[in-house]
Amino acid sequence: MESYTVLAEFYDQLTTDVPYFQWADYLEKQFARHKSPVHSIVELGCGTGTLAAILASRGYQVTAVDLSPDMLSVAADKCEGLDVQLVCQDMSRLALPMQADAVICCLDSLNYVIRPAHVQRTFQRVFRALKPGGLFLFDVKTPCALEGADGQVYIDENEDVYCVWRGEYDARRRICCYGIDLFALQADGNWWRDGEYHEEYAYTMEELTAWLGSAGFTRVKQYGNLRLSPPKENEERVFFTARKE
Fold it and tell me: Which of 43, 116, 197, 203 has the smallest set of CB atoms within 10 Å of its CB?
């Protein structure tokens, strides 16, 4: 069962609590700290395009990349009339015709790449996709966060949609598995049911730092969740910035 297929249609209804404008503000703060100006952005794992649309409305040229055609279909409607190019690609096989000033990957999209070799290849592809002096900025859920999801049940709902996430952490595989049941109210008053299965890999900060260096990045820094200060102990989300010299 693939991720973000049946869920795509309802994703925006179920994520109204995600502070996308706050995320965009944070990205711009990081851009401002960067030595080189940022005009063109590649967003990996763009989903339904909310963040891409916000950034484009603020004057950035955005290339929004996602593996899910269903999510990109929603993004196409949202980004209509904006300077956003949508690309359906696996981020570990990223290949774009033009280099960008910055590449971003937000909302733990990188954790969905569950093979370490593919993350390493993603970093190599991102390095190629950046202009000299370019910035790579991404976040990940930490092992602490994914281990803590074991046995947890999460519910997203509104009047027409009910979604249940059940987390299970496999310590041997270092993967958090989410079984998702989705219920949607139909026009005839009956409820339709479907589901998905998601996996996220628990990468350590040390692994990611080493792989960024191996890909050619320098000035690798870590930050706490939507902060400009270093991560605290047991932080559940960590942001990385890295530079292509």
Answer: 197
